[in-house]
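P.,

For your records, the input lines for the assembly:
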Amino acid sequence: MFYTEAGQFSSHYRTDRRLFRLRQDRYSLYALLLFAFAVVPFIGSDYWLNAILTPFLVLSLAGLGLNLLTGYAGQLSLGSAAFMAVGAFATYNLELRVPGLPLLGSIVLGGVFAAAASVLFGLPSLRIKGFYLLVSTLAAQFFVQWLFTKVGWFSNDNASGVITAPPLVIAGHDLSNPAGRYLLTLGFVVALTLLARNVVKSELGRNWMAVRDMDTAAAVIGIPLARTKLLAFALSGFILGVAGALWAFTYLGTVEPHGFDLSRSFQVLFIIIIGGLGSIAGNFLGAAFIVLLPIALSLASGFMPAGVIDAGQLENLQKIVFGLLIIGFLIKEPEGLARLWQQLRERARVWPLRY
Amino acid sequence: MDFFFEVLTGGLLAGVMYSLIAIGFVLIYKASGVFNFAQGAMVLFAALTFVSLVERGVPFWGAFALTLAAIVALALLIERAVLRPLVNRSPITLFMATLGLSYVIEGAAQALWGAQVHGLDLGIADEPLELGGMLLSQFDLFAAGTAALLVALLSFLFNRTRLGLSLRAVADDALGALAIGIRLPRIWAVVWAVAGFVGLVAGLLWGARLGVQFSLSLVVLKALPVLIIGGFTSMTGAIVGGLIVGAGEKLAEVYLGPLVGGGIENWFPYALALLFLLVRPAGLFGERAIERV
Amino acid sequence: MKQTTFRRLAALLAAGLLASGAHAANEQYFPLQSYRVGPYAAGGTGFFGGFIDYLQYINAKGGVNGVKLTWSECETEYVVEKGVECYERLKKGLNGAPSAATNPLSVGIAYATLDRSTSDKLPLITINHGRTDSTDGSVFPYAFPLQLNPHSEVSAIVNYIGQKSGGLDKLKGKKIVTLYHGSPYGKETNPILELLAKKYGFELTLIEVPHPGNEQQSQWLNIRRSKPDWVILRGWGVMNPVALKTAKKTGFPVDHIIGNIWSNSEDDAAPAGDAAKGYISITTHPSGTQFPVLQDIKKTVVDAGKGNLADPKRFGNVYYNLGVVNGILNVEAVRLAQQKFGKKPLTGEQVRWGFEHLNLDDKRLKELGAYGLVQPLKLSCADHEGGGAVRFQQWDGTKWNVVSDWVQADRKLLRPIIEESSHKYAKEKGITPRDCSKES
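Structure tokens returned:
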């Protein structure tokens, strides 16, 4: 009833091709953005802003980055965290060593550096396929971590190799309070999500999917494989780099190379598996799931009488639950939470009058 | 020069330990086309179960048998609950399922047996052995011997038994094997159980070396470049790859390390594997995929 | 169905966040960012077991001047962002009981909550570890690397080697290898070692072991080739037993390996079996159960079936005793702060005053039943470390035996380095250091 599409016609190609063709989609998106930008910073407590919303947004962004590469272009990667690290360390050094560069500029340039690193490690994808490509991304994972630990220059010769957030000031506004950091993160996430959505709907996005589904066939119909794959690496690296910078500076504030280890790469991979490979909304659903599930489980155990489950077992249990969910999703719903969301919308479309 | 050979042999022997993990991968990949990331978790599970049983007073072989039984049960369960429902899915999906599986196994193993570090003593003195001016590790020699025995056993199983024949048939052409009446699910369960057995042996050796604890499951990361150099489908490849990686990383650390500040062992094998791949995109002994549109 | 699950989840979250409504009685709260699973679980279960048992023991004796201690745990798994989440979740206190201090026992989590602690005015206790330059309390008012910071640690080890060789002047020409974990933690002390090598004229070789350290053959072959007099092991987790085993395999004498503060527990030595027999390490506190305070804990807490350890055999081991020491220091800080601010639950800011004025001399330690367990400690506004002394212990195959008296670090030498680093930090972050001469 509320979701009916009746009467919404496109009279131009332009309107037919817009990002959100349905009026309801558009309006609810506007409402959501309005809520996120104008309402949440005022009603959110420190805990919600610092410990839930900001990491959720950053992880969604990281998921988006990997999803472009793995979900859309079909190149499996276990090195996401390495590119996040490049973004974070590049941003830190730009801020430190290039006088006069504004914060936004260094974050974006940090992303560019990450994109370059990503392309470099993506080069072998022109010759190597499938699982063998894992070796390239894993090499990136271990090499980058080694480099940032080894070479003191990257952390300004800090004895313990950690980097600390520069003052978060944009055009004279101090954003170092929880709401400010949240808004900065949100701004990047919204902008990059729009960019990504545009790209996957463009020719490039369709080329990616063709390469993913079968790259030999894609080559046969004239898609330039090398360019397509490398562009996927570049854009994915850029988004991951920005996510890394945000992770380091708006979320944690201080980060060491070890903070971007292999388990972070796995975490990002799980976000896109659970959220949905080849889906934009899926990244947000997956990230929400990954952030909220552990908290929900540990709170749930708080309500049980003491001694039923001790903290250690709970964490093991959580591991098992995660694993089972991943397997379960792959078996029952390979397209992840995004698919469930889709189904919900399909149902809303005909509600309450089901033909 | 003596020192060079010492590093080289040390590296080769260490490489054998990597091969042990890699063999488990190859078995499963060949028979079911699954890139089994959970092999490391299986190694952990096996070693942890074994050592916990021994600590509870079960004699060595009793514990070995019980652990083996547990692993076979696990293999049957995996076949039934994970592989069967995912039949005909893309290799990437299967890989990700094994990622999930490794979480489940690690969680379950620690929930069952606790997270503390256990010492594991196989009763092999690890006194260095002086041999013509070179120092050799007794334990590594023993490990190499065990690995050789294991490989002999496996090649007997594959080449001389009826079961092995069906295994090879499935590896060659799963559909064809199905058509002539080989029961695919049973073969899968057998292969996973055999891989679990290999994992148990690897787990005991690695566990005796590192102590049995969570980081045992990380040895899987050492086995990956081995597999990639050797190719996913060849047991010979796993062994040769292990030797190359073992010797390569030790020599690099000793001779190249000081030039760049050391600590390069984590990524060097991957760089090495990458070089090999650029020349042979399917590993040294891997099957080159023929693609048709 | 989906809807109801979701609603239930939302309700659960909301309830969890609003649970701190009721105003509470006379209680002081400790938020515990503990870790009981994962690769470093052995440390977490021991440390937090000892800490909780000590808090229970104090409660059994009527609390701190009648103020009961409460706590709740939040599992971090040693993962930084989980630690941050736990910090944010617990910092406000429990049922109205204000938080006294956070004790994450994790370098990564400590780093990530440093800024937050300062702006929330909640002391961040990093006993035996943490950021070295946070010793300078004028720049880091809320961070306390109690007892021993990483720089003091190596200085004390070098002093001990000097003692063993018959005087610091005998160090000249000696060969010392440091085998360190390939992480910021591992690298942190390298500049100090280089400085000491220059000062005393010993030959220093730094060798890195990549994380996690389960393969060290090439490193030990290198060590064997250079035939050093001593090896300092700066390890972590699995790296330690593997180092000992590989040392044996390559024929290096294990009683010339000195482990640092994170290579000094039973869980580091025992898994190496025979190879660890004779291994020496530093400790800020002996293991063992002979101290009166541990006997009391055993009587009032453990024997009453309330002990926190799942495995009673671990009572009195290195990590457990570290937890007890940490409990003593936290409770003493609260007690001291109560003298100034009144016998009531205190805010983090007030407890911080207590930490900054901690002064545990032998007399007070004897009263606490912790003489010999805790080193004499005196903190001030400028000095957030206080002790800087260690003892050395040797593994006999089943347990640690203390083999030295307290060995003091050369803190005068280290101070300027610490200040240089803290001032650099202050400049980077735009902090104006406090004037410690004006603090009371």
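Two observations worth noting. Residues 328 and 334 of chain A are 9 Å apart (CA to CA). The two ends of chain A are 12 Å apart (CA to CA).

Regards
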